[in-house]
From TrEMBL:
Lineage: superkingdom: Bacteria
Identification of the protein by name: Cupin domain-containing protein
Lineage: Bacteria, Pseudomonadati, Pseudomonadota, Betaproteobacteria, Burkholderiales
Domain Cupin type-2 span(s) in chain numbering: 51-103
Organism, as annotated: Variovorax robiniae
Stored InterPro entries: Cupin_2, RmlC-like_jellyroll, RmlC_Cupin_sf
């Protein structure tokens, strides 16, 4: 049976939280969806959107997390997952297995994605490059 004391009901409407800086990457804006608080830190869900051009991208890294998915809501992003270039477009869903080395190196100005990660306080760890990274597309 589900322990209903471990989590709380949460309902966040579009006007309840705003996009803000101060997240993992300074070139993105983040909108908290209330899930981390509702799950006592078991899961985080936030919307992430482009704020500045992808001049350096995220760099090669991995996450110390048990679960992570990215659902592209608007626009597109190009990732390197290990040695595989991957275009993620609006409507696509990516499950990033725990520990996979990756690099988000290019994205459209209107890029926005939903990210769900467990635990909420997951860590990002820099890693050695897995492959060469193609150049980003300049913003007009």
């Amino acid at each position: 049976m589900l322990d209903r004391t471990a989590t709380k009901f949460s309902h966040v409407k579009p006007g309840d939280t705003q996009f803000a800086s101060g997240g993992l990457r300074d070139f993105f804006l983040y909108r908290d969806l209330g899930v981390a608080e509702a799950t006592n830190g078991q899961v985080i869900a936030h919307l992430v959107k482009a704020n500045m051009p992808p001049e350096g991208g995220t760099g090669w890294h991995r996450h110390e997390a048990n679960f992570q998915i990215v659902i592209m809501v608007k626009g597109w992003a190009r990732f390197m997952y290990e040695d595989q270039e991957t275009l993620v477009e609006a409507g696509d869903v990516v499950h990033q297995r725990p520990g996979i080395r990756h690099f988000l190196f290019d994205y459209s100005p209107d890029m926005e994605y939903l990210e769900i990660v467990s635990p909420a306080d997951f860590k990002s760890v820099d890693v050695e490059p897995a492959a060469a990274v193609p150049p980003a597309t300049p913003w007009e």
